Fold this sequence. Notes:
Layout: E1 2-5, H1 9-17, E2 27-31, E3 34-38, H2 40-46, H3 48-55, E4 65-68, H4 73-85, E5 87-90, H5 95-105, H6 108-120, H7 127-136, H8 140-152, H9 154-159, H10 168-181, H11 183-186, H12 190-194, H13 204-214, H14 222-232, H15 236-239, E6 254-258, E7 265-272, E8 277-285, E9 291-296, E10 299-305
Parallel strand pairs: 2-4
Antiparallel strand pairs: 1-5, 2-3, 6-7, 7-8, 9-10
Helix pairs in contact: 2-3, 4-5, 5-6, 6-8, 7-8, 13-14
Amino acid sequence: xxxxxxxxxxxxxxxxxGLQAEPVTDTILEIGQRLFQVNRxxxxxHSRYFEAMFFGGTRESSExxxxxxxxxxxxxxxxxxxxxxAKVLITLHNVxxxxxxxxxxxxxxxxxxxxxxxxxxxxxSNCLSLMxxxxxxxxxELHASALSVALTHWMELLQNDDLFVPREDVIFDTVMKxxxxxxASREEAFxxxxxQVRVTFLSLSFLDTLVKQSRCPGEKDTSAxxxxxxxxxxxLSWRNVELSHCTSRSYEILYVLGGKHDKEQQELFQFQPKSxxxxxxxxxxxxxxxxxxxxxxxxxNSIVSLPx
Length: 308
């Protein structure tokens, strides 16, 4: 955990407010089940959100008691303490919640501190998720740092069972796109990278497209040349069964079955927790539904019994 001080904080507050060291509270904020006595000027110095609320001519500009929804009270307390003490305690437990609240309330300095904290926690195991997180909350420096870690450890990422992709085809496409960005210096790594693609889990339609492209005449097109190279000299993991991956990448999937009882078919839906997306699967025939289990990697995740 890190306590980050802001050395110029007190001077900025006093200069901006023209007040004594302890500004007088003039407003009550109700957040969750808690009431916070605050000074409008002190909050506005740190937050454009409160600057607009208190001095932007809105209804709240003249209200003494203001209710704010959608904000965690404990996290707001941390931000409020920052306006008073110039220190913020950032831990692995509170960093994302603190960053998201600082982003919402526009405490830019605290948000940047959280971003720096996450940069120090970057690892090959979390770089992709933090890259997506940074993009979601507009943290360009964190995104750049996470991308740098991902590119530095790309081979390790491709080997990881926990790498989440909707289809193995995406891995192959990603390798091709990376090579095509700088063919002159990256072409040598093509077979090594493609060797990490789990060929047995590439879709038949995708493989069919690759075969057709590899048989196109001409060597000037870099993509076609690489595919011809793959066709004539595939990596060992594609040729040797013992070296190839016999299992797909592992991640949780939830299946939900439903529909009217008197229908011949039951609708089947698939939910992927990592992406938060639902997909409609092919319907199941009711006459086959007596008792069944959903399993992944030899682990039974749920057992469902239905009347025949």
